[in-house]
């Protein structure tokens, strides 16, 4: 590659030497680095260059370069950004993929760099102004500023109204839960960026015509409520034309069509540049033997091509030979398999030498001989409890400890491994299918493990493993693993009998040849192979035995560590027997005689699938069971939404994550989803259909899955859908939807050795997105609110008064206040200090006419003792009510029954009241969440409930629950 470092701008010196993001803005036709604090802030009149550097597992850097053009950017700056992008690529060795990003038409790969969104500004905002935005996207959000008018609202989009005091999120009736959850991230971004976290947040649901003060305040900005019309088609919404894929060669700056019946890589000449026009995107392919001027000409030809065809908003993606993207390669009928070492090391070496002479670090540009692959890690505790069953027909039999690491290639097995995790007991259940196992046994194995998983409510991680494709984690669990020829199951015996095949099942007194492999005592395997000389390999050690003769054969390319592993395996295969050690080339005649004579054998290690950088995909099954995949770039934990299924592909294995609120039908097809993913081979990796599959349920993520994220286990302990969870995190830090009781999973035995007790899990209280929220206002409440208002305080007349929900007095008068019926923004200190005024007002209230609306309970101050009057308050049964921010069905409430416990004088552990409430910031550990009150001492119980425990449990259950709700014990 011809590169002149004199053509590289000095601003790019030292760029791309560490993983992360770097940003430059074009000022006076030159790139100027901007500080990290300003990353993600873009102005509509400017042009920017963004470099994303990723360190691959091999130690080599991978680069993506984006140049972003604001809608008001001048043409000279836009042209400079495109040219300087080529110079930056040259400085990085000419192997970066380059993307042109137009404002409002950015690629999702670009937007993922600045999650949750970017909001370009015309100028630096001096003071806040009311604005409205439309949010689009389920995984990555596109944010567009629109006119602050009713006409901008519709049923298909989510709109955000940003006012000085409050941010409103309007959820169109046709939007999904996932879209609403992602839009809430934008709301949080606006609150942090433009309000310094000092403003309120409200969500408005399209089509909910409830007497809601926040809804009234929202519609007040548009002159009052009125039904929204159906969305009319716009230019963006209209279907785009289907452009035929066309390949063009750039010759002297002109794009000339290439005549070909089909697209193959042979059409691309390393001395030229090409355009691949795919309609919505146009690819620029750069041959490695082209110079910088030719590459600039190719860029200009791509721009001109889009102008001629009137498609200025199409994306332009540039790449150099041997660093093509998957999407580009997928357009061709045939493409040879690529690897990192395919690229021209000579060209990269020249670039590295030039950079080094200028004093720049060349780490990551070329892979030196001293670099080696990182040793794989199991990421779990490998000293746990292992149980193994052999499947025979429709039955399974547990193996004794001494036999549980010896598998026969004609059989199927189920294994269960329990170990200590970071916060709880973890469990892994898996299947292993031998290469010669029969379909009957494989089907039976899947049926048996499904029943085992059902018995633990699918809290265990499931693994599917095939012989010859075992992941490192599998070997680490078994530590010493043997694969023997033949099989012991009836299905295998019947199969070879029907086919007339010889039964070569391994016997200790017969001939056996084993290949020894592994990386250490915690990971070593003995694989039985055919006892012939051709099975030998110079890169391995082998163990051969016949009757009383035992040989250990060491290949010429083996190390002392390999010899040590062979000796360890020898103790398992033929312990306490005299062994003859043979080095390759010095074998005895007796050794060759047992193998049937001396022949040639290979000397290269058997290739194994190494783990690559993880890629995350969202998976959706269509009605006709077609798998739709969507790649999520620069992913993090928050990208895992509870309504969806995701796959992490690391080449050596795939991990399927299933959210708690995934549809039941989809949950039953999770393994089929993994198999369809392997068939699709979306990354063109030639994935084996027997690649190991791990299935993980939300809330039970093992460490070997969470290692791909910066993981917060508290987020997986939340209730509700993704929108409700996100809203709870924004408003109260997630306390209202948090499961305070940790999930513990005790080891389970299905073989009878340690009992058959099943692990228990605390019930999750969940609620649907379509449950109406209990809100409302009445003249009585307005009268009550006016009693507490400061008469001298100024009020914005366009803003409704504070939310104060209806009071439900005790039938028959008496002035008793039902505190579980209070809601909204009542200040509890004022409430109790003016109890007489409240009683006087509520005594004249009529019986409520809207019985279906159930008000929220008030937030009782922790330091304020609750009176006996409150504790004895009566109300309607709980059929649909918010409990600590959660809507609870009647069935769920009835399951949380409180049984009478022994009096505390008989012994027990007690906690202060503040540690037992749902709003506690320091919850008491290991308590029964349905019986929190039992952990209060007698004196504390009487102080909070106004009665003894015995009197409390003599009350009806619904009344007990109502009192606990009012005290925030639920």
From TrEMBL:
Keyword set, alphabetical order: Actin capping, Actin-binding, Repeat
Gene3D superfamilies found in the cross-reference section: Severin, Villin headpiece domain
Residue intervals of the HP domain: 905-970
Cited PROSITE patterns: HP
Record has Lipid metabolism as a keyword: no
Alphabetized SUPFAM superfamilies for the sequence: Actin depolymerizing proteins (SSF55753), C-terminal, gelsolin-like domain of Sec23/24 (SSF82754), VHP, Villin headpiece domain (SSF47050)
Any one biological process term the GO annotation gives: actin filament capping
Comp. bias intervals (Basic and acidic residues): 889-900
Region (Disordered): 734-777, 860-925
GO MF annotations, alphabetized: actin filament binding
Sequence similarity: Belongs to the villin/gelsolin family.
Protein name, UniProt field: HP domain-containing protein
The species this protein was found in: Lactuca virosa
